[in-house]
Structures are given as structure tokens and as C-alpha cells.
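#dry-run=false #mode=assembly
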Amino acid sequence: MRPGDSATRNDALCPSCDRFIGPADVCPYCGEDSARQPALKILRRAAVVFGLLGVGTLYLMARLQAIPVTRISAISPQMNFARICVAGTVTGRPYVSAPGGKVRYLSFVLDDGSGRLRVIADGQVARDLAERGGPPAIGARVTLSGSLRIAADGYPAVYLRSAAAVNWENLQPPAASGGSDAEVSETSGSLQNLPSPAMSAE
Amino acid sequence: MVTCTTVVLASLTGALAGSLLACVPGLHVYNVIALIVVFSVRLGSAAVLPTEALACAVIGLVVAYAMLSTIPSILLAAPDESAFFTTLPGQRYLQDGRGYAAVWLTVVGSLAGVMATAAGYVLAAPCLLPTVWLVFRPHTHWVLWCVIAFMLLSEWPKGGSLGQAGVHKLAAAWTSLGAGLLTFLLSAMLGFILLHRSPMAPEAAFQNLMPAFIGLFTVPWLLLNGLSRTEIPAQRIEKRIVLERRTFLQGALAGVLGGGFAAFFPVITGGVGAFLAGHATALRNDRAFMISQGAARMVYYAGGLLLLFVPGAALVRGGAAAMLRTLFTPFDRVDFWMAAAAMLIAAASVCLLARPLTCGVLRAMAVCGYRAISWASLGLVALIVFAVTGLMGVLVALVAAAIGLIPLLCGARRMNCLGVILLPMACNLSGFGPQVAAWLGLQ
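#status=ok
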């Protein structure tokens, strides 16, 4: 016999009908409440209730909470994988990879005055963004949210999760374009009247 | 350029610190590494301390944790009456006064894991891993779905065998099954929230899942220990433990298979790997089971971390690799050999510490009692969660703790709590994670 066996056997019997009920809290024969430790029984019910309510509360908080706007200079390695919101201006020509005419990947660089980061969309998100007229052109004012990834070299990038998470306003005053794009165009959510971004077919 | 002295000193320091910290119940090595990363970034110590030294220290920490965290998990995991019929072999040994022998068996398993990891890492990983990963990469999503299906379908009813037939018996049978499914679904929902729209501050993002893991796995264990009325019998320190060769080989093989599977495939943890390997090799022997647990943990933790150093592959597996990568990037074969050396130095030193630390914990249990140690550990864990993730992290940990208590109190598998990462990641790897998040309004 192992230590504890005798105590366990007594505990395994219903205190009312004296039949073997194992670890059950309620006797399956007579229905007697035979919980050995009532605190655990209360804890079991509380765990289910708090689990359901807690997940519900976190869900509501997550849905209702606005994603805070983050300055690019404030990004640190600890923020890797964070969902962030960034607002800035597109600098440099956006890059689009469209092998066979099908957009697979696009990226552009965003500058908010404090620093720069690359914004990347791939797969369906890239196609959706292209259908919306993206990517934004040079000089466009962009507000977007996405997942922050910090590469091993410390350079941050934001991966878009949805094309709807990007809002932009194309503004290209003559001074900003340096004279190369003389036409001043201002569109919102569309780039149809702008020069197309750099394309590459892989 | 890193020197041999740096590698040896950093590995030994990591191993020593890891060995001591591994004896604190509920304290996970990833929490310690998170604190190291936080302080390294805040204080800029990465510029002062060579990052190679930091990498060696982290390897030492992980190896020590993989080998010695079984000390508190066996000696301080007293099963309550309600769980007595579903206890693990280590807990049965503890109830027999043989906790020391149980720890010794898992340490032997860990040593087998170190040997297997070193052999696989040095001999096979550089030439095979890049190709193997290239072949398996497109298949990870369905492998993950199979693991989830097996995990849920292999849960068996713990009640319903007694009493009158009919609805009551059916309901009793479904209590534990339903609790398991509820745990899995609630954990998965928590995972979707944390991975897609975490309510925590962006500064805590790299430790996004830490409060959830602590809440799901650590807090319920410590809480129930504190509330438990079970008395742990006096433990005896056996001078000679006989281990049959067949038992050792069977346990080691199952552990290495399970740990290797978990280390290689993303998201799958050491526990899941050992569970699958145990089924695959029909492991029934208690001693072989404990050896397999030790081997699986070592291969999963140390092997997973070392995959980061494999030239041409550099796979990020496990929290330690993900966090270390924020401070250090392996470049060449020097780093590859440095990691192998650090693991072996750490493993050798930790082996020497296993006996005195086990005896020390047994003595502490006799003096303070395991309930007091559990409450103190609970306080320490809460403090760490608050320090790294703030008040919101504590709230997430509390919600997760409520979910983690369900399987413990209802007789279901604790493994169901892994839904927190398995389901969201399976959806992401299958390519429809963002759509599911959008349906849930978390996009």
C-alpha cells in the first residue's frame, strides 16, 4: 500500500450511501454533495464565470480601444510585434512586385518627421491596396495601423493587416516635388491621376 | 571577437543563475530573459556587455531551466484530492516519498536530451536543416491542425462510469470533456485578442503572451498548492537508483522525438511534443515517462534556441530565441560553435548542481512548507508580470488564471490551455487568420 492510500480510499466513498464514487463531488448514486473541500467547488464555478466574463471584457476593451499613434523615433525593440498607428508622409518611390501582372507585394517608406520606417503589404492585403489605387505616391500624407516588426539590424517595418487600415491623401505641391512632377494633384484614396510607382516583375 | 574565456564565464554565469531561478516555482526562464532584455534596452547594457556573452548567458539560463525546473514542478506540485486519480508519475513518486528519485530520473532524461541535441546540432543541422525546413515549411499549417485535432479528440471522459445510466451519466461523462473544450475555446479567444488587438501597451508587445501563459499555467498551480490540504510525506534521498537500459532508451527516444518535433515545428511546445511522442511510442512505464519528459524539455528548449545559430537556416523557435534576436544576431560558424560550447558547458555544470539544489529545496519544504513557498512564488510572479507588462498585463493574467483553473478543477487536460497560441497561429499559418480576426472585429 502506498502512503496516502488509506486516506484516499475513505475520501473516495460517499459520506451518505458509503458507495465508491472516486473523486466526484456529487454522488452519482444518491446525489449527495460530497465535496471534500467546498472552497475548491466554489473556485470551480468562479473560474468558469470569471473566465467567460474576463474574456468578454478583454474582447470589448480590445474592440473599443483606439490604437495609439506612435512616433517613429519612440519605437524600441520592446515594441516588436505591437499593433501601432503611424502618421506621416511617403518618401521615396513605392515598390510594387507584380509577377504576371498580379500584385504580390508592395512597400513604401513613411517619414513622420522624427524618423522613417518601411510599410509592407503582401498577399491579399497588397492586392486589396492596389485595387484601392495604392500604394500612396511620394508626398502623400498617410495614416495607417499595422503590426510592427523590428528586423535584426534594428530597422523597423510595419506590416499591414488590411487595406482598410490605410488612409491617405495625396498632396504634391510643386516645391515638394522638386520640379520633376510639375502637375499638382490632390486625390483621396486613389492614385489614378498620379505617376505609377516603381514596378518590378519577378 | 568573442574569446573562449568570455564564452565559458558567460555560460557558467547563466547556468548558475538559471539553476537557482529554476528552483523558484512558477518562475519561467522566458520571464527572466524578458527582464534581461528590458533592462538591456533601458540601460543600454548591450553596448557595455558583448552581445555574444549575453547570448551565451541566455543559453546557460535556458539549459539550466530545462534541466532543473523539474525540481519545483515535481516536489512542489502536490495533487489535491480531486486530482489524485489523474496525477502524473512524478506526483505519484512524491506521494510515495520518492520525489528525489523522480527528479533524478528527469535529470538523466535531460542529459540524454543534451547529447541528442549536441549530436543533431553539430552533425546534422548545418547540412540538413535548411533543406528540411524548405520542404516542411509549406506543410506546417496542416500539421498544426492535425495536432489540435488529436489533442481534442484524444481527451477521454473522467466521469460517467458510476451511477445510474441515462442523462445524468452522460452529463457526468461530458463534464470533463466539456471543460476541456471550453478551456480550449476560451484560451483561443484570448489568443486572438492578444495577437490581433492586444489591450496592453505597445511597449509590452514583445512579451504580449507572457501574462497569458503565466495566468494559464503558473497561477492555477500555485493557487491550488496554496489552498491544498494535502500533506506531502517525508522524502527520502536514495543513494542508489537502478535504471534498466531498456527503460532509459525507451524514455530517451520518446523524449528526443517529441522534443525534436516541438523544437522544429513552430508553435508546438515541448509538452505537446512529449504528449505526441508518448502516444507514438506507447509509453506506459512511469520511469520511462519521467526520462522522456526530461529529454523532451531539453531538446525543445535548448534545441529550439540553438536553431537560431544554424548557418543558412537561423530559425526562430521559442520565446528565448525571439527575445535574444532583438539583441543579438548570429552571423557565422563562430557563433554556431560558440552556441554548442555554451550549451555543453552549461549542461555539465548544471548536472553538478542538480543534487545539492534538490536537497536544498527538500530542506526548504521541510522548514517553510510547500504552501508558504507557493504563496511567496505567486507574489513574485505577480510582481514580474506588473514590472514587464503593467496593470493591463496583470488583468490579462487574472483572466487567464480563471481559464487555467477550469481544467485543473474539472479533471480536463491542462494542455487545452495551449489553445491560446495553437488556434490563432494555425489560422495565421493557413492564411485566414486576418479574416477570422476581421469577423471577430479585431482587425
